[in-house]
Amino acid sequence: MSVKRKGPKATAIRVLTYVVLVAVAAIVIFPFVVAVSTSFKRPTDIFTYPPSLVPKQDVTVPADQVGTDGDPVPVFTFPGRDDRPGEWALVDADAPLAEFRPLDDLERIIVLDAAAGERTGATITIDGEEEDVFLVDDGGTQVEAYRSRLTSGGLFVSVDDPDTSVLDLVNFATPSKEFGPRFENFSEVLAERDPETNGKGVGRSLTNTVLVTILVVLGQIITSILGGYAFARVQFRGRSTVFLMYLGSVMIPFVVLIIPLFQLMLQLNWRDNLVALIIPFTFTAYGTFLMRQFFLGIPAEIEEAALLDGASRSTILWKVMVPLARPAIATLATFGFLYAWNSFFWPLVIINSGNPDNAVLSLTLSTLGGRSSTDTNLVFAGAILAMTPPILVFLFAQRYFVENSASSGLK
Amino acid sequence: MAAVTFTNITKRYKDGPKAVDDLNLQIADGEFMVLVGPSGCGKSTALRMIAGLEEISDGTLAIGERVVNDVPPGDRDIAMVFQNYALYPHMTVRQNIGFALEVAKVKKDEINRRVDDAAEMLGLTEYLDRLPKALSGGQRQRVAMGRAIVRSPQVFLMDEPLSNLDAKLRVQMRSDIIQLQARLGTTMVYVTHDQVEAMTMGHRVAVMRKGVLQQVAPPQELYLRPANLFVAAFIGSPAMNLVTADVTVEGDDVFCSFGGHRLRISPKALDRYPGLRGRHGTKVILGIRPEHFAMEEDLELPADQVLTFRCELAEAMGAEVHIHAVIDVAPPTVDGAPTTAEDDPEALVTGTKVIARVDGIHTVAMGQDVRLAVKTHLTHFFDPTSGEPLR
Lengths: 411, 391
Prior knowledge:
Shape of chain B: elongated
Structural class of chain A: alpha+beta
Helix content of chain A: 40-55%
CATH class of the largest domain in chain B: Alpha Beta
CATH topology of the largest domain in chain B: Rossmann fold
Number of strands of chain A: 11
Number of strands of chain B: 21
Number of helices of chain A: 13
CATH architecture of the largest domain in chain A: Orthogonal Bundle
Strand content of chain B: 25-35%
CATH topology of the largest domain in chain A: MetI-like fold
CATH class of the largest domain in chain A: Mainly Alpha
Number of helices of chain B: 11
Largest sheet of chain B: 6 strands, mixed
Oligomer: heterodimer
Radius of gyration of chain A: 35 Å
Largest sheet of chain A: 9 strands, antiparallel
Number of domains of chain A: 2
Helix content of chain B: 25-40%
Strand order of the largest sheet of chain B: 6-7-8-3-9-10
Shape of chain A: elongated
Structural class of chain B: alpha+beta
């Protein structure tokens, strides 16, 4: 390491630099964090307010703990109600109840069982309506009140003391939440396409994409190595002309090629066939150029030494040159991988008869998020599934971008 | 093992000059032949033609009895050590040395045995599992040698193998290579531009210039009887001093005059250069090796064999002192003369530079006048127009 500038000013600049860098990094990574978080959420959990990055689920207690039977019972709390401390299990969300308003304070609501209260026989006129006056229990004291509404609400049983129960509107209670990722998002999205089970068929597309990607990358590596070596080291008539034409093809935008390529695929009867996604992309001018440049950089003496050692051209290529070209091959494989994995437009054109069995990941993902889709969590689960392999590939391959072993055998 | 024979070999590049021009050279079986010359002289091209890395434009090249003009490199049964070693960076030392055998489909345990033997011979045993990048320059050099000897080839070719090493290691490797060649007895063709390597290593040395072979001779003969001005100037370090001089023959005595100096030549020199006698009144190029000067007090010679120079620069080397001086006469410009004038246009104006090599016990100051005795019986004489020796 070199000597660093010292002093308070330099420190301040350095701190500021890091603050800015961290802030930008946080902004850049935030959408990704949201996607990961949403992919683990329950549908009910996605649009809650305030939004949360942590996937949550309802806290429940076993039914028999609160004196009922059946499914586990969700737990609520009553924040701000000191008379209802602790957690309360909602044993019945449809209990009949009545709202009473005390005559001395018409704004206050007392929620009681629908059958509670005794008519005093008196009446009172509220907003032009004549209402019966009841004598109701208000926390131990009897007050006069009128019944403003008959409705249904929740019967809550104290989790700590199952003998204590209260009736209240469910809206007045706050559901207890705990950390709870929903892994089924992934299994549902991967499962075979089936509306019954909510399967989205991403698994099949994933298999197709993996197959296409592996074959495209392998094909690109092999053709680029052979072409690059020929252009770099084999003398033949018209070599530079052919190379220039080959390289010139990089300049032609893909959209120009779509119609002729589509026609060609029709002629070959490759429409709706994965082979149409593989064969046209196993040849890459860019990769050939990359390999040629790398081979040119390998000292000719190494090849001459191999020639003198009795090695044939193909032995030299596969045993000497290719091992030396590993960094270039890794770069090429990474680019080829990303291209094949993410390609969308060509598959959309050529796999077009609605045959979902031959769809690739990018196509299936685009149908997940359609206009009528409500499964936001599944869309994100699919997106995360599609994103993970490229990220892993990049993490493993990136050291090759900086590594260069070719020159280490010299001097 | 085999002899290597060049017969009228020419290498012509398209639209270019001849890199090698009509080369005739017999390298005997088991001989250590050094090809030496300045850069661009064609020595490396000649070597690469033996290797089969360069096409031969004309002539016949034979290894042993076999004409190999059209034999690919791998089938010539030769091994080559490159200047930059050209090790396979991704292979361990063992794989590097064994690669040729592996290509030849030799059995695994046979390969291991021979690699172990070669490594043992070169002191590489403990490095066999390392990659080249984990080795020092000298070790890589030895791996390159190991790769050559493991195959027991007919001929070793070495292309400036020591030029990437530091001075100390170079001396060490030089003697290692000499001993190795002596032990194996394999024909060796060794290319270098370093005339110290040429002199110390070769059984015979072939001096080349501009694609043309100048002289092939054992080192000592090259030094004592140079075939022309170029060889005289190229071999020896510091180089031979060449001064254009006027010859006067007075009876049995021959005098050379140059830049205000007059030197009597010992009659013994005339035995070696009888042609000098007929040169009265003409110019010749007088060649004096730096070591044939001595301080006057070290070598008692008559005053007419002593020159007085003003010391322009004194380099104390410890064992000896190099005294630089300038003689007030234009340097020789004949083809093949050392390129002082080309390198340094000033030299034309200021005269001919000479270097004298005297015993290291003397202290010489810059600007001081020094009296130097000349061993005139060892001087050389060349024709000033053709550069041929006056034999």
